[in-house]
Design brief:
The protein has one domain: Alpha-Beta Plaits (2-Layer Sandwich), CATH 3.30.70.120. 33% of the residues lie in helices and 33% in strands. It is built from four helices and seven strands. Strands 2, 3, 4, 5 and 6 form a five-stranded antiparallel β-sheet that branches. The protein has a two-stranded antiparallel sheet with strand order 1-7. The longest helix has 13 residues.
Amino acid sequence: MSAPAADPAVWLVISTLPDEVTAQAVARELIERRVAACVNVMAPCRSVYRWQGAVDAATEVPLVAKVTAAGYPALEAALRALHPYELPEIVALPVAAGFPGYLAWVAAETIPDSNGCENDANIRENDA
């Protein structure tokens, strides 16, 4: 039976990237920095949205990252720095319940290291 996610509070953070290569690079960097315990790179999907007054559509690659509530600010900062979009989708949803061992693992694996954002340019260079 799943236990309520009391402490640590774990969140699922959703974002979309323009392609598989960028999504894989961002996912790996988030793990390397320890700002996410796990990042699922999902299958490409078709997004329909309004941007700058016009309806548009694009194929995007969704990411789902697991992080503690306390670690969310570091994840958001890293994702914003790494993301190629002007206005990236970054949405966090609290986990209401989960396997206690998994929730503890997420907390243990999301300890940001001190290297900051030094690899941001490398990811963008690899995309070019």
